[in-house]
Amino acid sequence: MVMREKIGYYSKHIIRKMPDRIRHYGGYLYQASKTPFNFKKNASMFRYYTSVGKKVEIDYVPPIFDALISTACNLRCPTCLFILKDPDVFRGGGFIKVNDFKSIIDKCGPYTETVWLDGGEPLLHPELDKLLEIVKSNGLSPKISTNGILLSEKIEIMKFFDFVNVSMDGYNYETFKRFRGGTAKQFDSILDGLCSLRENNIKFMNSFMLTEENIADIYEMIKFAHEMKPDIIAFHNINPHGSKEYKPLTKSSEKAKQILDDITSKNDYPFDISLPVIFDTTSNHFKTAKCVQPWYYCCFDNEGNISYCCHLRQNPEIGNIFKGYNFNSDKMKNFRRLMINHQYPKDDCLYCQRRFAGEEYGFFNSRVKKWILS
After folding, report:
1. What are the structural domain ranges in the chain?
2. 35-373: what fold?
3. Is 191 a residue whose pLDDT tops 50?
4. By CB count within 10 A, which of 97, 145, 255, 267 is most buried?
């Protein structure tokens, strides 16, 4: 196990240091080495790596499927990327039909690798176990992102996910209420759910959103992780989607640099850590970096409607995966063209850290006790 962790650590370190023009190919070789005999999947992945950021029309199945299986939610987080655009977005939400979901996963399964079950709040779906079985029966990796309120109720199902992300943002009730808008009872339910995950040896991640205003809280977030014992703790720079209420972390912030340098000066953490991208707003790269999601992800909601990425709303005008969408609708091709030409929608994409995937401030590997720093 230690040797495998070291190989993974140094492989990621090497890929991270590669020049931009060849980094994708290093990523392909690393991914292909995991499944050397899966021709369909590897051929599709190779076409992805030769197309990403270059071609508006693709000839492969995206490696990641992100399904909003529930457009209902039991929270109203003020920082939610959907609520920032539409406060009533979850009113009257519904659930994906099992047969619709199965038709897509059965068709695309041989070519893709991962399926995220997302929302809204995915644990609200009344037939979550059936959706999970469809993913696993196709040999795909099932992953889920949840607010954690229903974890204890769904703990038997959670045992069969390869990866569980519990979005926290708050480390006590006061901060939970501020950033997630929930009640004390809901926060207590999340704590119980995290304990259930650990007691059942289910690998999970706690994720936290950082802004210029709450960057100093990272110490309390790490302290919280010491208590809850996640496998990974991940920090994300906020994407305000045009809102003036939240200020992203930038390289001009001496406070942020000082705090993150302090965090990375230590190497005794018992969990992996992913630090956020820090935006260099004065660089040309800040404007020209391309998001891979229009090439890498297929995102659809419970009705089959497509979105350009996991941070933007689904829209039937982009396409509908239950009605013959082939990853190349006119609107999707045009969006890829805009991304290639750096003409993406500024309110939604300018401060999105997904445009800078691989450029995070640092990663800590708790098995080898080392940081990979940008």
Report:
1. 35-373
2. TIM Barrel (3.20.20)
3. yes
4. 145
